[in-house]
Specification:
heterodimer; A: 146 residues; Sufe protein. Chain: A; three-stranded antiparallel sheet; 5 helices; globular; B: 420 residues; alpha/beta; Aspartate Aminotransferase, domain 1; Aspartate Aminotransferase, domain 2; 2 domains; seven-stranded mixed sheet; four-stranded antiparallel sheet; 13 helices; 17 strands
Amino acid sequence: MSLQELYQEVIVDHSKSPRNFGKIDRASHAEGYNPLCGDKVDVYVKLDGNRVKEISFKGNGCAISTASASLMTEFAKLKTIEEVRKVSDEFQSMITHEDYEPHMDIGKLAVFQGVREFPTRVKCATLAWHTLKSALKGREEIVSTE
Amino acid sequence: MLGTTRIIQSSDKPDLFSFKNIRLDFPILEEKVHGKQLVYLDSAATTQKPRVVIDTLRDYYEKCNSNVHRAVHYLGEKATRGYESSRKSIAQFINAEDVREIVFTRGTTESVNLVASSYGRTFLKPGDEVLISYLEHHSNIVPWQIVCNQTGAQLKVAPINDQGEIILEEFKKLLSPKTKIVSIAQVSNALGTINPLEKMIPMAHDVGAVVLVDGAQAASHMSVDVQKLGCDFYAFSGHKIYGPTGIGVLYGKAHLLEKMPPYHGGGEMILSVTFEKTTYNEIPYKFEAGTPNIAGAFGMQAALKYVSGIGLDNIAAYESGLLQYATLKLSRIPGLKLIGTAKNKACVLSFTLEGIHPHDIGTILDREGVAIRTGHHCAMPVMQRFGVPATARVSLGIYNNREDIDIFVEALLKVGEIFR
């Protein structure tokens, strides 16, 4: 595994100019933090029914964590909560399982496959996804209590 | 001229030790990492071990292994003799007045915790203050927070300037008769700043505080004389001074150790036990409950002997030359910002590269065989003070040379290529 395979063009591009970067007002929000390296990400989600209507993130992290958050927001927009969950699990499995075999097409997110070879960087790639899951849960909890 | 340093460039000490062949003493430096020669620049996290330390550990287990202070048999006596001989070497190494002032611990962290728990919990009262600095490692922050919570004492923090130096006037202002304990690193692990303890300790004593010095990052870089420093406690670790992990030292003035209650209860730390009353052993054994890291003590003695053979003053001079060289090379890299530019610094270079996260720098350098540390270095308040979440850190030891710095700088240029 070479560095170029880890830092693919798409990853470098998204890390330098992250998409959907910033705060969304009155959105459901969760904060993710990796105490090992100090990476921090805030994910904001607005739902329309069970569909992600708006999504953004803010944070301070390495190229892998920033690009992962950026590509995640691109992907999750207009998807249903269920679709996001499935892809999140697939993504997790792709970068943690040595004998990973794809169950579904995850599009551009596949550029993170190389992260598997860099165990110390796995958490960088998954931080945004964990945070999104938690933001979605928050939304559901709010919905259920109202 | 680039390449291996042959003679130390210090005009006032012409007969210095030659560091050229020192690398041969460290077997790990032969290792290849991702097909490249290992360049180890993370000695502030832990130093590599010379063969003599590794051999000592093996010899101990092959020829000596036995419990200390218990058995009357041959091996038991031999192990006890070696263990106590290590204590003597440590006392000499830091010039303690009395060998009973040397307590074996697992490392600096445990040493600080021992003082915080035993001394702090006994003598701190509500309204008292503990003074630390912004430069401290978490291990010299959290134990004091815990004991302050338990006793109602308050934690005060001396600020640092933009160079990463403690502001002495502010330090002085924070001292008052309420200050009971001052705990300060001799050298900052995150920035390399060497603190002016010769000024700070008398200031603290003037208000009646006891002073603990966290020497984890200092003991391998400069000669330490606890009597000259005048500190009340001094903590350091074996593994940061070319010795094994899991062994460390707490030096404490005898009259203080004597009035402190035990830290852990168990075997070794008692004279007699009945269910009604236990009589504690004398210092330092009162603080050494349970079977200690005997092999570690042997290994630490070997490490101190090795380091003393080179000479701490020689090491300080050699490393100072390396630091100057590395600082100059780094200052020429566009977008690189050094964090921590104290006038008086040990061999640590913390930096950021514009637009590139330290974590990415660390991964890319690793593929070039260059080991550096990235992150907050267990000193998050320092990072916050400089407004960065993390830095990349190069820390040097006696086995590093200019060639290492050159390889590192070249690898750093690759980082720029990937993020072009």
